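User: ok so my PI wants both of these folded by tonight, can you help

Assistant: No problem, let's get them done. Here's the first:
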Amino acid sequence: MTTPLVAMEGIDCGYGGAQVLFAMALEVMPGEVVTLMGRNGMGKTTTLRALFGLLKPTAGAIRVKGRDMTGAAPHRVAAAGLGYVPEGRQVFPRLTVEENLLATARGRDGGWTLARAYGLFPRLEERRGNLGTALSGGEQQMLAIARALMTNPDLLVLDEATEGLAPVVRAEIWAAIAGLRADGLAILVVDKNLEALARIADRHVVIEGGRLAWTGSTAELNADRTKATRHLEL
């Protein structure tokens, strides 16, 4: 039986005395694309922050490749093979594009290199000497994705993958994600574009009020979208 890349089981988590997640569960298998959907404020980002050790769960377990990583430090989670593209991009503003890509890079035979990152997003190569502050929002998102890929992750996690981007840039991001999926990279993605998510994902997880509200395959989603969309802002 294949071991999940990530398994979150019964996670309770929050901020201070305010609980946000209640027995939250999530699983991603090798090579699988999974979406995490829900209305604003339902706990999507909190789920990702708990996964990456930025918040410590008060109950439940988080396993990465079968290893217990509950409450592990963020650098240990990253070293275990998870790459994170956070909401808001958070590129290094005073580093150039190329310096951003190299700052946290980890080599792997046959893995991601500068040439491969520039091949995915040619616009970044054109701006390789530009500071992070000199990039548009879309270019910053491309840089954030490419920077995460340069860590050569087994699982790429994107929070609000195309939020606030122009349609032409959104299309470029979705095309890149589809290409990564075709290459066999496992991806966990948060976004509001149900149509785009349904085209690229194998399985979907919907969260409401910090709890798992619905999960199913794309075939199940397409057979009866009301099961998922009643929990979404559409």
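One down. Here's the second:
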Amino acid sequence: MRSQFLIIAGIIFLFTLSSGCIASDGNTQLNLTFFDVGQGDACLVQIHNKTMLVDAGPYEAGPGIIDWLKTRNITSLDVVVATHPHSDHIGGMPTVLKQEKTGIFIDAGDSHTTPTYEVLLKTIEKFKIPYRVVHEGDQIDLDPAVTISVLNPGFTYSGDLNDNSIVLEINSGDRKFLLMGDAGIPVEDKLLKEGRDLKADLLKVGHHGSRHSSGRRFIEAVSPEIAIISLEAGNEYGFPQKDPVKYLTDAGSQIYRTDQEGTITVTADQKNLIVKSEKTSSPSTDCNCSQMQGVCKSQESRSNSCCLSCGV
């Protein structure tokens, strides 16, 4: 009788193992790639054969992201997240959505009636991409080996689009990664007041290293081993500004910048965090000027390199 029980138990264990409910080595590998998109944000999360794109940089960054995906035989995206509807985060997204089969599109639902956002919504509608709005407390399904939690925005929007950014906490085993979008100090203070355990292995620094994000108390609480700042060399805003850099340095963080390192990939498992960078050419300014006519009418696009190149 006991031998029969052991045989049955063994069969159940093997079935559970093969179905993926138990990790075979407890050491799942996660890749986060922070693209060099100039002045903007774009990050690809990869685990097993699943992919999640968080933002896609300005308009001119779209073709470069597509080229990067193609060279790695990535022909579909399970999840695409727009953290907030500023053009330096969603400008390249229509190009990506047109060429990559997309499982679901996610944003914060904060209305923003600029031509850039309208083009994105029309693309989602045209290609019949499922659409979901998320708020704090929600989770995003990507792979059973990771938990992706939405920490912001709340159900009441602030008057600042940056502070309505989707903030993501990605947990993989004992590893934690925080992607802050352009969320500023008010969001950081809210997270601190909620008493969350914010300690993380990696922080995608909020708002490109602006002094309006990455407050001292928040950085001390997160104390990331690795900090990623996505920005353009010689940008007109003076990013990264000295206060966030000082707070990160004081916290012992290793800072990586896309304006210096280019595209940055962090490979993480339970034992190691490995950072690799690749210098790529700057986002192309070979722009489709006829398509830019509507986009460039908005005030937010006045510094868009395609708008400047096309003279519109």
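The chain has a mean pLDDT of 87. The first strand starts at residue 30 and ends at 34. Good luck tonight!
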